[in-house]
Amino acid sequence: MTPKPLLKYLLALSCSLPLFTSAQINPKLTSYVNPFIGTGAVKGSLSGNNYPGATVPFGMVQLSPDTRDEPEWDAACGYDHNDNFIAGFSHTHLSGTGAPDLFDILFMPYTGDEKTRAGNAQQAGSGYGSRFSHDHESARAGYYQVKLDDYGINVELTATEHAGFHKYTFPKNSQGRVVIDLNHSTKKPNFGCHVIAAQFHMVNDHAIEGFRVITGWAKLRKVYFYTEFNKPVKSNDLIDGGTQYFDQKLLNGTDLRAVLNFNTGDGSPLLAKVGLSTVSTQNAKLNLVTEIPGWDFNQTVAQANAKWETELDKIKVEGTEQQKQIFYTALYHTCIQPNNYADVNGDYTAIDYTVHNSKAGFYSTFSLWDTYRAANPLYTLIQPQRTAGFVNSMLSQYQAYGYLPIWQLWGQENYCMIGNHAIPVIVDAALKGIPGFDIRKAYEAVKNSSTTDHPGSPFKAWEKYHYMPENVLTQSVSVTLEMAYDDWCVAQLAKKLNKTADYAHFMERSQYFKNLYDTQSGFFRAKNNDGKWLSPFNPLQYGGNGGNPYTEGNAWQYYWYVPQDVKGLIALTGGDSKFTAKLDTFFTLDSKPGEVNGNASGFIGQYAHGNEPSHHITYLYNYAGQPWKTQYYVAKICRELYNTSSSGYAGNEDCGQMSAWYVFSAMGFYPVNPASSVYVIGTPVMRKVVMQLPLNKKFTVLAPNSSADNIYIQSAKLNGKAYTHTFITQQDITSGGTLEFVMGPKPNEHWGVALADRPVK
Amino acid sequence: MTPKPLLKYLLALSCSLPLFTSAQINPKLTSYVNPFIGTGAVKGSLSGNNYPGATVPFGMVQLSPDTRDEPEWDAACGYDHNDNFIAGFSHTHLSGTGAPDLFDILFMPYTGDEKTRAGNAQQAGSGYGSRFSHDHESARAGYYQVKLDDYGINVELTATEHAGFHKYTFPKNSQGRVVIDLNHSTKKPNFGCHVIAAQFHMVNDHAIEGFRVITGWAKLRKVYFYTEFNKPVKSNDLIDGGTQYFDQKLLNGTDLRAVLNFNTGDGSPLLAKVGLSTVSTQNAKLNLVTEIPGWDFNQTVAQANAKWETELDKIKVEGTEQQKQIFYTALYHTCIQPNNYADVNGDYTAIDYTVHNSKAGFYSTFSLWDTYRAANPLYTLIQPQRTAGFVNSMLSQYQAYGYLPIWQLWGQENYCMIGNHAIPVIVDAALKGIPGFDIRKAYEAVKNSSTTDHPGSPFKAWEKYHYMPENVLTQSVSVTLEMAYDDWCVAQLAKKLNKTADYAHFMERSQYFKNLYDTQSGFFRAKNNDGKWLSPFNPLQYGGNGGNPYTEGNAWQYYWYVPQDVKGLIALTGGDSKFTAKLDTFFTLDSKPGEVNGNASGFIGQYAHGNEPSHHITYLYNYAGQPWKTQYYVAKICRELYNTSSSGYAGNEDCGQMSAWYVFSAMGFYPVNPASSVYVIGTPVMRKVVMQLPLNKKFTVLAPNSSADNIYIQSAKLNGKAYTHTFITQQDITSGGTLEFVMGPKPNEHWGVALADRPVK
């Protein structure tokens, strides 16, 4: 269960892939990506819910093993490193979400003889899975390999943006089979998930196509596929539930499996290429033949690797081997989503179930409550073009749906979590001047999304009560705090566009958080619409996702959520010293009464790094003149709550947010207010960082003596000049330059403490 | 509850619609259409499950009142003449089916003041319906009117192919409102019916658009709409479940209602035009503005009426006023479906949930187990162009789905009933030389649909056992008989295309019915795949739709289902006299042991005119030399089991089949074998029939002395020459000509009895 040492990992690669041996000479950055990090808890510890399969940056296809027939909440990505069984390889996955969905078009090779062919329908009920061992499993960016112990089959997988490429090496003299399962993952109670309609169509003896229309966490998804094999299908068994159809060309139903039989006795590999589309089998075919026209598996592996290298190359770091593995795997994870669901010709199924077309692509999987905090700000630095694509995709939901995404999955809104955090993402992109979208349309969208009542967003009540009453909308304290932040973002864009009245109005709304501040308890507390505090109150009491004023957390954790007005929060708390004292208590108070929400993990006192509400809190010491405490806790988290094991994350990866936290923090700064263009300095973990930026600019962070001992900033220079601010700006970075730190084992309690040096004065 | 006399009906029309008063001077054929016929059982008798609303021939929109919030099996068309409550007016309905579905986009006008506006959300739960009385209700082809007693609102409705047109006359000084309900009809257990997603979007103060995506009898339907009003929407309340949103532009959800408030105090009518589409709101708008560009309600009524006049004008009849009402209402009902679901630009959502385009339209609602018997043969005579459209639409399912429709609803297969009766429909059209489709593609489709295993059609078992074993597929006797008939149809097309081997093979399959003939009991009986008769056996025992060898009937009713080889059936029975004696018993034996299936009704002995398996049986006497008994029973059914009341049908109308039976039989002949181009002569009910045919041909049937007493054919002439055959052919009809009958009160037991005169020699 321990993570693979890099050497063993590279060795495995060199055996299976001659192309890649060059990596040993000039190690590519992709060689530091270990897709097994975060794939499974070690001895009851924590995991990221990451999957190890093959994908390309921001691609629609994530081809990965599912270690359960019916992946549930605890293996929402489909894979758990603790399992020793593989049900098959499905083409779509979510990276580190709390809820399971997708798992489309499962392929599984197996072996059998003619005699057992008649038993395929019976076997369908129990699956075609195989045991496997991590000893015979490997993965890197864009490539996954495993030996299926029950069949002796070596499986290799790679991917393009819209297609998966499978390579199955069967034992000699075996009768090779491939089952395609269109009902995989649906036999569980979550979200009433079930297949409404599905189809297989044997196009010819080398090709099969089909689709499944399925309900789930995404209300309704259409998934079309087109598959080609390098060998002819000798015979096929199409199966609907318990009924088997021999050598039939076509089958419609809801519980469909296809078993395809091949001549594999000569030991030459069976290759399968699978194109996906949300629109039609024709488009799935177009995607496939465009992206994988030939049969050179290694070439596709190399192309996937090159795409990853291009993305990772945007940030070059120096540090320990372990740090580089953590860093580049984290950077890799941030680029797994959002996913471009548009076909190569631009077609995609939109939120109103009509076909739209966008030549620039259409991105989905917006886990915004998580990613607006750090993942999206990171994209503004290293993915400006895609950031415009994300914004335009979110604006297209606004056009068709009337408001921006809250949690968009497969192009559809599932209303998961609270707030409207497409707003900070879009405002941040607009204020940073990311080109490629219409800033006026963006303003229309963020404003209307802040005034149009919709599920989880009763703005008329917000405007009426100036806080969110718990009896109007549960999770009301968290909602009030996060809504006030979103309002501040709207105000900033209004200001930029000289919309004075709007600016004033939304700035007023951004202060509503104060209406839930209870001076007596010293916490943000819930009220009903009668204006009275809800009692009893216990600041340690946890809420989940409803029925309690706090979202996946407690009053202690939500106390700190005023990123738009930390100064105001400090004032409410009673000034700097009371504020830092309260932070000290927060990081040391480890009582956990009642049921701790499953998302809360990675504790330091009340701080829970495993969930997003805590993510900015370590950085708040800077605002009150004690930056060395920020440095202490950030270093502690970077060095203790991330590692290279399958348990390398302190909680769900959440579509890149846990990784983005590390990427930023390891570089030395973090976007506490993610739409402010300001990054608050923590402590650099890497000895050197070079960020490649647009217009051929480079931003370098040097901390040559950073180490596990030297976690404290002694002094800093920006572009050669002494630098005492505990923050840097977007412009500091994008203009290019060098930020240098001298680190030491003891706090320098004079650096960065002056009022003028603080992120907010 | 008694039907409206024609005079009262015409009077009502003349009051409300000046345009139509001309009908009193030169009665149009549409004046004989009484849409209330068959809309509700009178005193526990029978009904056709017809709806009285407004539609145009073969149009997508059927705008009709729903007298229940949740129409169930017993009011599957949405309307029961026994009800005194209207829930609203929805835009899509099924005419006389056994199962409920559609009921899309319900509109309901009502009145209320500002004070009660806040109560709309509460009211949403209980509905906005109103009481009504048949005294203030009227309908004709393409027009429906009712006074809503609770509100004093006069509602008038008309339709085009893709749009509904509403005219609401509110009381003076009232506050007029219209609710649009997107969740109407879903709160019932049938087929797991529920809304997956829905949307309202206030386009401007005169327009609202939206959609609902819904599961049901059709697995998944997308219904988009676009509505324009002639008055501005003063204010709106959008409602999702129990939550009300005031004056919001847009709402997404699953339990959606929109309440729109208008200034109606001046008493001028509020007009609403509603376009529908399966593709998008844009297409719904295109449909609307193309078909109803202006605001002239009366003009749309007149256009709808003219369309109906064109269809009805294809058969001119002379008879009693009541006979003409029955006849033209029946002819009207045959033209309500199949429906053209393609938008005016040809777009439609196909069976694989992709958007297809067919400039010639795309027809759906194929209740083929019912309509292949007589409705489709009728279309070959008076709707040849649409018949080609029907065939091409069915072939497009074959292309996308691998086999032809069994029961196609809203473009989707629901596998209702047994057999593959698109085959006789297509073969019939091909053999009759209907132009406009590719006969070779048609053959490919019928052959592959007869060899590709699919739900309800295990052809490998059929080929293996040479009958359908009950333990392979239930309803096996009915399946065996109907499958054998379909096979005969395939053989006929194979023969025409000189596919000799196919012809021989399918002719052999068409004889498999003999393998279930039990000489001991003298009935078709079920076997399991062990080849043994299932026991005990009771020929009176009813089956429903599974779990019994007989489909919605018993062994007595299915005994007669060998239309492809009546001669063979006569031989099995033991010759003419045993055959006619068995028919005599059939029509007089009235025991009904066990539970009679709900579809069995309209009994004469074991004969059940209310369901399709019986429909051809009266005509079988002709095959055994006793045509006067055919004449007796056909006359009895025409004169006793059809009338002009709301209970005017002896059972479900079944999408035109009950009506087509009457249209044919009242003219004097019926397609016993619907793909043989042969019509068997019964007894003419009409004194004169003139059928307008392609190439400007006319076929006339004269029976000047036909009456309730004179039901027996004394002699006949075809084109002036003595005619003793008890059948005519498609060519006799389409060549044009005159068939004359002399009728009398007593059988002429010499006419039509010779072997040479029988439909099969």
Architecture overview:
2 copies of one chain form a homodimer. Chain A is an alpha+beta fold and 761 residues long. Chain A has 2 domains: 257 residues, Beta-galactosidase, Chain A, domain 5 (Distorted Sandwich); 443 residues, GH92 mannosidase domain (GH92 mannosidase fold, 2-Layer Sandwich), CATH 3.30.2080.10. Chain A has 20 helices and 39 strands. Chain A has a 9-stranded antiparallel beta sheet with strand order 7-8-9-10-19-14-13-12-17. A 6-stranded mixed beta sheet of chain A has the order 20-34-35-39-36-37. A 5-stranded antiparallel beta sheet of chain A has the order 5-11-18-15-16, covered by helices on one side. In chain A, α6 crosses α19, α10 packs parallel to α13 and α13 packs antiparallel against α14. Chain A is globular. The first copy, chain A, starts with 5 loop residues before the first helix and ends in a 17-residue tail after the last strand. The N terminus of chain A is likely disordered. The interface between A and B is large, with 36 and 36 residues.
